[in-house]
Amino acid sequence: MSIPRGDILVVDDTKENLSVLVETLGKEGYTVRPALSGKIALTAAQKQLPDLVLLDIIMPDMGGYQVCEAFKSDPLLKEIPIIFISALSDVTDKVKGFSAGGVDYICKPFHTEELLARVETHISLRRLKKDLEARNKKLQLALDEIKTLRGIIPICAHCKKIRDDQGYWEQLETYLHEHSHAKFSHGICPECIKTHYPEIHDKADKPGT
To answer: Rounded to 5 degrees, what are φ and ψ at 178?
Structure first.
């Protein structure tokens, strides 16, 4: 069983156009989901995120530019690349498409080779971006885990408090916990017992105690 090359949502109010795109892309191994309106497309995308959207411009109720803007205003959908595919070929239409958030623009009637090349390019870019985001997240987690102290640390010679970057003096354990994620348990060393609790120290030194 072959693995789908990507999930593509095709939006066009003309069934014949949808059939051509579904057949053309399906033959290349893509999973293609047709949508006859912008509202249907938004609902379908929210239920299952596509890797790419092919979007017509002239549609009733909700035009392609409006659909694209709705995608880009939704935190869940805004990163999905959108390619406009339209019979409108004027430069102002293309500029408007890019301004709405589209990543590319294909004019109808389209050339199959051009369509497939652009689809493959943008799906590959989307996957590379997702992979980079995942790697950056892992790297940040790793950096957080290996957080270390560096440089000269100002420390009070008497009480041993440490001055932080904002000029505030903090207890040693507080400062170390914030900068290294270390946790502390408290005890008393023999020297401090002798200095601060001589009665305990003397009692411990007596035979039979």
So the answer is: -70, -30
